[in-house]
Amino acid sequence: MLRLLSALALAGLVAGCDVYPVVPAATVVAVRPVGVAPGPGYGWRFRAHYGWGWYHPRYGWYGRFY
Fold it and tell me: What is the pTM of this model?
């Protein structure tokens, strides 16, 4: 009987709790460009699986990033 009451009390305490898994956030380190931009409108951006590079909103990635 005591175990049943303890279990019910514990269930009542945690009934309103939300449990979420803890996932570490991905970190991206900012890197400064070594040279100058290849032209007007290019911005220094990070691209997954390729790293940092120059990106233009109209022409896309500059250089070896196709």
Answer: 0.52
- Cα–Cα distance measured from residue 47 to residue 61, given in angstroms and rounded to the nearest whole number: 9
Helix, strand counts (H, E) of the chain: 1, 3
The residue among 26, 28, 24, 44 whose CA lies nearest residue 36 is 44
Answer yes or no: are the C-beta atoms of 33 and 49 closer than 8 Å.
Answer: no
What is the C-alpha separation between 51 and 9, in angstroms, rounded? 52
Q: Which tens digit of pLDDT belongs to each residue from 13-56?
A: 555 555 556 665 566 677 788 889 999 999 999 888 888 889 99
For the chain, domain boundaries: 22-66
